[in-house]
Batch of 2 targets.
Target 1
Amino acid sequence: MTLDNLKKGQTAVVIAVNAGKELKNRFSSFGLVKGAYVYTEEYSLAKKTMEIRINKTRIAIRSSEAEKVEVV
Amino acid sequence: MSVIKVALVGQPNVGKSALINSVGNARLRVGNFSGVTVKKEVVRFTRDDYDFEITDLPGSYSLTDYTIEERVTKHYLDDNDYDLILNVVDSTNIERNLYLTTELLSLNKKVVVALNMTDEAVKEGVHIDENQLGKILGVSCVKTSAVEKTGIDELIQTLIKTYNLRENRFHLQFSEVYEQEICHIVSFLEEKKVQCKISLKALAIKLLREDKDTYLRFHEEPVWIELQTIVNEAYKHLYLHYDTKDLDDIFNDEKLALTKGAVIETVQFDKQEKQTFTDKIDSLLMHQFVGLPIFLFMMWGLFQLTFEVGSIPMDWIDAFFALLIDATKSFLGDTELASVIADGAIAGVGAVVLFLPNIIILFLGIALLETTGYMSRVAFLLDGFFHKFGLHGKSFIPLVSGFGCSVPAYMAARTLKNDRDRLLTLFIIGFMSCGARLPIYVLFVGAFFAEHHAGNLLFLIYITGALLGIIAAKVLKMTAFKGDDEPFVMEMPKYRLPSFKLIWHTVSGQAMMYLKKAGTFILLASVLVWFASNYPKLPEIEQQYQVKIEQADNERAISALNNELAQYKLEHSYLGIIGHASEPFFAPLGYDWRMAIALETGLAAKEVVVATLGVLYGLGEEQDEESSGLIEKIRANISLPAGISFIVFVMIYLPCLAASMVFMREAGSWKYLAYLFVFTTATAWSLSFIAFNTAQLFT
Ligand SMILES: Nc1nc2c(ncn2[C@@H]2O[C@H](COP(=O)(O)OP(=O)(O)O)[C@@H](O)[C@H]2O)c(=O)[nH]1
Ligand SMILES: [Mg+2]
């Protein structure tokens, strides 16, 4: 399952990040790496954008980016 | 006296700028979102016989060169001369922050870590053992709070102490496997007596990360042949051990392991509340359905306030300047000097100062948006909508800054990674009406519409401008700036109640700037406009009228003749000639030559538009009558359709000279400025034409 399939309020563990180098580096500087816990905070209208939390960091990402993160 | 050069580095929004403001009594811009500081700024001060020279760099999550601002930081650290790095860290989110710290430590420079936001950390129950952390990292750590000004002196002492240390030992310990490979490379480099500005260990780490600059420097040297095999060998070992061929991944793993280890050993977390303050507010403001309406409502409220509250002192200011003009004239008599001071300088400057209250309220609104953390939320709420029009969600931040002033807005676009996205954003920032256009709107709306509609209309003007900008973005995206979308990943800061002082600093600074501009640039421009509208002198014509006036038999005829003379002189002044020359271009939009001139002078600065109108509509009127307020004059001289069409033109056409120059620099070529000029002028003309003709149908 990928990150964008989570419902609001759900928590999941990242098992893989299938992004290009740049995005992957950015994700990892936010702590979004293999093994991290992700909590889905909010969705915007039409579910185009979502807010997630990793530890204490809240980030907004588009579902097109969230698709690249595999979670269980 | 020695100079200590400090590079200020840290992740975005950790309080770097705020800290330097506290340390060095500076006034750097502070805001609660990432991307406030986009270029490096130097602050100098003296303490304990040392001259400090601190360079505030844009925040970076890690040392990469994806966006312009990140490049600024990375290149500064790599290429510039500095004595030590002051790494500012957000104590409440220490694990993520140390990620950058480890990277900085690999540069092998002297580093001091400021554990900032101590006040928040205490409240949130985060306890850091700074001595232990310092031992693990091999640097000094100091707890600070930029807001409560604690730990500032200690920080300075630590900077001095670290500066005076003779050597800096490389202290960072990676995993055994990684260290072993580093060790191999270092001993080879030592054998070959390789010289390098940075330490050999730092160089080895760069080689292990496949750093491009390092490769470029070495690959033409003879030593590279042997070095290459050694490095390749090291890669093989690492690949095998980490089960991946991505060297970035491997190094990131190392950094994460390091930070995790350090945090476990030195930080204690108290039990957390389930829902934080930020969570509670977000559940309302970020709500899927009510989030956007709340934002629009707040914007609407802001414009209501701008007009309702702003118009109270406005009446006084207006009356004050009208009085001042009359007083000056009666004091100096009917002379040229009296006219240049009263009708030129005072009328022009007065017209601009008149709108200070509105400007202050608008800037207050923007300051609140920027300092509370709401800004990034709105970017989130609008991202989906923006995306449909080909804009990046992050574009929202420069666009909002554009409501204040276009100059910082153009700079703020640097946070956009992709050049196409950035250019697109640059092109439409002008559609966001800047603070300097507000006076024009308030003037015209105030002149033509009932007071209880005024706030709504202001809101409408701003929203329409923004929507037009977004539509323009779509058009540009489909034609000039075609391309794929960039990823959107943006941090949401926690909500912070801005201190009164911070707001006061921000708003008063901007108000002072506005007044300063009124007292210098606008003053000069008004006097210029006055001269251009009073010269050349036409003695023959004046004589002809003089004769006619003497022959006239009643008061009314004399006054009519006087008026005619004044009008004639104005229309045949330099300004009148230019105005008439450009009149055909503006005539379809309903403007007389004075409005045309006002728009043209507005290219220098938008405040000049009202100043020019103040001078021009002040001159043509009868001399013996008491000067009425500017709003009255506009109402008397301009028709409603022309007024509406004027507002539309002002909404769209080119921002001021200063902004145009910054635009050109940020866009990178004068060609873009030419495109922008043509694009905005054509759009402004067409839409004003439509507005004028539509409005005429209804009046
Ligand atoms: N509570 C608290 N807030 C702080 C502190 N330092 C900075 N801030 C706030 O953090 C935000 C970011 O500050 P800024 O200096 O712009 O961060 P920069 O991006 O690192 O330069 C602002 O809202 C500041 O008011 C601190 O020590 N304590
Ligand atoms: Mg800053």
Target 2
Amino acid sequence: MNREMIDIRIDGKEFKVEKGTTILEACKMAGINIPTLCYHPDLTVAGICRICVVEIEGMKTLTPACAFQIERPVSVKTNSPKIRKARRINLDLLLSEHYGDCYTCVRNGKCELQSLARDYGIDNYRFPSVIKPKYEIDNSSYAIVRDQNKCISCKRCIRTCIDLQKVGALETFGRGHSVRISTALNKPIAEVICINCGQCINRCPTGALRANDPADFIWEAIDDPEKFVIIQTAPSPRAAIGEEFGYPPGTSVTKKLNAALRRIGFDRVFDTNFAADLTIMEEGSELIERLKKRIVEGDEIVKVPMITSCSPGWVKFAEHYYPEHLNHLSTCKSPQQMFGAIIKTYYARKVGIDPSKIVVVALMPCAAKKFECNRPEMRDSGFKDVDFGLTTREMATMIKEAGIDLKDMPEKDFDHPLGLGSGAGLIFGATGGVMEAAIRTVYEIVTGKPVPFKNLEITPIRGMEGVREASLTIENTLPEYRWLEGVTLNVAVAHGTANAKKIMDKVVKGEADYHFIEIMACPGGCLGGGGQPIPTTPEIRMARARAIYEEEKNLPVRKSHENPELQQLYKEFLKHPLSEVSHKLLHTHYTPRGKYFFVG
Amino acid sequence: MKQIKKKILFGEYVSGIGLEKALSIKPEDVIKEIKDSGLRGRGGAGFPTGLKWEFAFKEESDEKYVICNADEGEPGTFKDRKLLTEQPEKVIEGLTIAGYAIGAKRGFIYLRGEYIYILKNIEKAITNLKEKNLLGENILNSNFHFDVEVRLGAGAYVCGEEFALIESMNGYRGEPRNKPPFPTQKGFRDKPTVVNNVETLCFVPYIVSKGAEWFKSFGIEGSTGTKLFSVSGDIEHPGVYELELGITLNELLEVVGAKNPKAVQVGGAAGICVAKKDFDRPISFQGLPPGGSIIVFGEHRDMLKVLKNFLEFFVEESCGQCTPCREGNYRLLEGVNMLEKGNCSYRYLRELLTLCEVMKTSSKCGLGQTSPNCFLSILENFKDEVIFR
Ligand SMILES: Cc1cc2nc3c(=O)[nH]c(=O)nc-3n(C[C@H](O)[C@H](O)[C@H](O)COP(=O)(O)O)c2cc1C
Ligand code: SF4
Ligand code: SF4
Ligand code: SF4
Ligand code: SF4
Ligand code: FES
């Protein structure tokens, strides 16, 4: 369908734009930069900071470029005394209310407010400024830290939480000058239904929201000669941490990162993809078992569809919003947690190190992993399975603190025996990846043949569409899986909890005829996680996904069940998927929490 | 301009005549009559009512709504309360005609929370009108159905702003939205919606039954008709007055018994504070703003205190979403406190005047766009008193 085109003028030059384009978008196409603060490409428009104001001919007041949709020919000015005055004063108003201790702020150098102040040449406070912090920092959560002294009330976090994630842990409190951006009833964030996804952090323009950073404890462990510090790195940070060192988005730096981590002082560098492969073995087997109980034995208690459980943000979302449907979730722990449990049992025994001396650090794209590793259920090894969840951003800072530039690092491999991951484990980082990895393995277990897709690439479930569905008919099964012959496996993939909600509402109503669903709490999957480099945009997430898929194409092992180090683990320790040891170490249960407040 | 005794709203009213006339002609013709009358909104912004209806009429939609704005939160204003208490039938008739004109089957009265005690009154009127077949199904056998419901406001001044009102009716925080789209395009439940003030709607039955020409015989060119003024302050006879638009402030002051006032706030808190030199100016959409409330200040009043009161109101009542209004009003109040203590430099005062300008040009809604008016006008008109203390 051809959209109507409209003639407009920007700063005297003529352009044609599609009807409904905002002035901000039109200016971008015209190569004109309009400053923004409350605008974010992932979010609904608020038009409240009034930094992006422009002049439209014939209108008395200024117009926010982000909010004005072009429906008729307009003539726009983007630079005039009136505009400059308004932008400057509105910025001054924000700065004067802002407790700006930039040099002790996590966002120093990556703060939109700071860079606007720089771009506008601000060298003094126009209005009497805040000299002491007014609010106590909310440090209640393992994952999210809120510092309202740095909040400029742009509501990007609220819109993230409500519109993008459909959680609603944040809201506007009060009115007028005493407005505050806070949690429901102004409670500590650990006591509301926050799922720790960290998406609000990634979209906050300032340092008002940040992750709970364990770097000091990790340094301490590294410096302690008694401690054996192991780091496992997830695929998404590797496709993104380069951004913190000046690489363009979509540059995978896995091997340089390995070198940097050793240089920092980690005793072993392992690959979380190994644990992702382990997850696929366990989860795939669980799926087959569930299907068998359902199809062959007609057991109604076993829930189908089975839903993935490797995204702790999603798990907590389900615990709050679907407490009665938790038995749809796979009992598998996430790869991070499986890995911790294996390291502190199998690996400790194998190399003869006292597990109480082992510190497991997980480099994750995720804020929710910090909460996950602190769950009381996550101590099946007899110790805290994973000691610290560290985000990509925090890792970058540690590397810089050690005086290392990733760009200068040589390329190094992982340590073994837990350092080999298949391509299937690698693509866990992108939305649809777990599903693709699982199908590759399950299909082959059942039929003895690889999935019928060119290059093993199951393209129908790749991409960035919010909800994706696919069906695959199973044919020529091996004798023991005859009961699956001709069954069409229906699967669905959702990323971002708003999309998860769409699917779950179907599951609740019994309208979802899927067998298996992958859900990731973060838009784009882990590569868009709440611990990833800031900024985040659809383009950046797409670039990271490309990096992951490119890297996986060329890997020698691309199916989880063919990972030789994993086969060794089963042979020496676990015996087989869903074994007694597996159940003890690798599977878990969930806590129904409900939609209202809880403490803990 | 001395015919200040001519009345419309406080004159004679027979329920149903206007509606009967409206239903006998086409909606377009009702709209034309209102347009020809020159009626402009009495809720503050003064938007031509007929034009607003025409916009909504032209929108294609399965549902449309009309809303009577009875949120009256302006300090010193009580004219809409009087109309709703004394003649709720008239308000509802106006709303029904508006519904007929734009093609809406449902209307709402958004009643200020504090006015809950009038609710029974209004509901009784609704029942009465239904019994007389002036409301409900198949009104006067015209095949036009129209129902009215009352919604109670949340007690915030800003909820009187049309989009904040709609948001609050939609079940969200009462905060103004960016325009466009306007309520006539995407209003209540995202459907075309006309929001009109109580008083505006009350003129409608008269205009339809007596004609645009008759209405235009009141008031002056560009500001036709009469207007209700809630007058309070240092005067002998506070109350609600119906006066023709175009009357001078002096004439009004005479009517209400103001003895040698020093200053008058016209157009409500969002209006301006004028000194003696401007008392001979007419009150009209072209002259002194004709908002609902007029507050008279006698010789003994401290104008800085007056200003402080207004600003305290705005600091509190701003919804707090946009920067210039949330932070700006606070800074103006802070400036007044500095003036009070005598430690506001000229230089800083100039900064505050620039701030006022920016609030007017870049605030998201009428509140922030007009709240600096009191600061600007009091500083301008009472400079000696407030600066040289
Ligand atoms: C802060 C603010 C408060 C307002 N309060 C009221 C009010 O109490 N009653 C009212 O009718 N209009 C109020 N308005 C004006 C409405 O937004 C709207 O213009 C009006 O209801 C339209 O009706 P009219 O065209 O009949 O005047 C307010 C506007 C602003 C900006
Ligand atoms: S939020 Fe930005 S401006 Fe504020 S202290 Fe941090 S870096 Fe500085
Ligand atoms: S972490 Fe996620 S759930 Fe928690 S407040 Fe932020 S966006 Fe909402
Ligand atoms: S916390 Fe951050 S995103 Fe949220 S309103 Fe404050 S500055 Fe904006
Ligand atoms: S101008 Fe004031 S009341 Fe209006 S939207 Fe902005 S903050 Fe809210
Ligand atoms: S970016 Fe447009 S108003 Fe904030």
